[in-house]
Design brief:
This protein is 35% helix and 27% strand. It has 327 residues and is of the alpha/beta class. The chain is globular and about 65 Å long. The model has no long low-confidence stretch (mean pLDDT 93).
């Protein structure tokens, strides 16, 4: 078979890296890139030796599969157009900004036998790979994701602030928790406040599952000190992992005492792994005629989105109740 022909729509902060990593892959050929800002697309194209297209549809006509890395609020329109053209898609998280849009995207992809992957890149983090191999009986999860406020970008909005911190950052951990706890959500309690933007910039949620497991998540995009970590309490062990530093520790309960072991995680490019997983799924689908899913298929992206939006609604309700005003 000839190599998979791929393209990238949106070459901002993330899309640029999609283009770069596809270009480095031995398993696909990059047809080109497209961005509403053609001048920006030309700069990225020149940097990586690619072609910048002036029309999204012209690029799509020459591709088998595409990444969509435009702002979350405009995922739906290009995704539906491209799915209806029979194109396999990898869409950056969140899949959409409404459950209705996400559901239509998932149903359209399924009806047409197309791969629809969602860019929850933390699933490919070495820390998450370790947790998947040491699943155990998870009872309690703590996750923290802190980042500085996104810098200004000339002629563009700050990256990610078109949505609140729940859809921007916390959704990563919501997806991880849903993938780790094999149970439905029973209830949750959420709070969040605006600081610098028109939506919540800090959020905290406590989630209870029907099997008794509990997750406590904290996200902020106005932190001086970045942090990405998770602590998992199982029936016989405690696992603490740092996503950013690729290290952590495991404390296991023995017959006589607790045994602690430091964990060194394999270091690799999680986004590159995500793109290779998408390429694999599309190639298998094309070769066999049977849909092969990515590690994070559209349905799971939709489930994380639905929980995130419900949490966001709870935060909005809480703030109205206590007269917390957004900018």
């Amino acid at each position: 078979m000839s190599k998979l022909k791929v393209g990238v729509i949106g070459v901002g902060a993330l899309g640029r890296h999609h283009a770069r990593l596809y270009n480095q892959s031995a398993n696909c050929d990059v047809v080109g890139i497209y961005d509403l800002n053609f001048e920006a697309a030309q700069k990225v194209a020149e940097e990586f030796g690619l072609k910048a297209f002036e029309s999204m549809m012209d690029l799509a006509d020459a591709c088998d599969a595409l990444s969509i890395a435009v702002p979350a609020t405009v995922h739906y329109e290009p995704a539906i157009q491209l799915l209806n053209k029979g194109k396999h898609l990898l869409i950056e998280k969140p899949l959409a900004v409404t459950v209705e849009d996400a559901k239509e995207m998932v149903e359209t992809a399924k009806a047409k036998g197309l791969v629809l992957g969602v860019g929850h890149v933390e699933r490919f983090n070495p820390a998450m790979n370790y947790l998947e191999k040491h699943a155990g009986n998870t009872r309690f999860i703590e996750a923290e994701r802190l980042a500085p406020y996104p810098p200004e970008r000339p002629g563009q909005h700050r990256r990610g602030v078109e949505v609140g911190v729940v859809l921007d950052l916390m959704i990563h951990d919501l997806d991880l928790v849903l993938s780790m706890v094999d149970s439905e959500v029973e209830s949750f309690d959420a709070v969040g406040i605006p600081v610098l933007s028109e939506t919540e910039d800090i959020a905290n949620v406590r989630i209870k599952f029907k099997n008794g497991a509990v997750a406590s998540l904290k996200s902020s995009r106005v932190s001086d000190t970045p942090a990405r970590g998770i602590r998992v309490f199982q029936t016989d062990a405690y696992i603490s992992l740092d996503y950013a530093d690729h290290k952590g520790s495991v404390v296991k309960k023995g017959k006589l005492a607790l045994a602690k072991k430091e964990v060194e995680l394999d270091s690799y490019n999680a986004l590159a792994e995500e793109l290779e997983d998408f390429i694999r799924a599309v190639n298998e689908t094309v070769e066999t005629g049977i849909l092969s899913e990515t590690k994070v298929p559209g349905i799971q992206g939709m489930q994380a989105l639905e929980l995130a939006i419900n949490i966001q609604k709870e935060i909005e309700s809480y703030n109205k109740r206590y007269n917390v005003e957004f900018a």
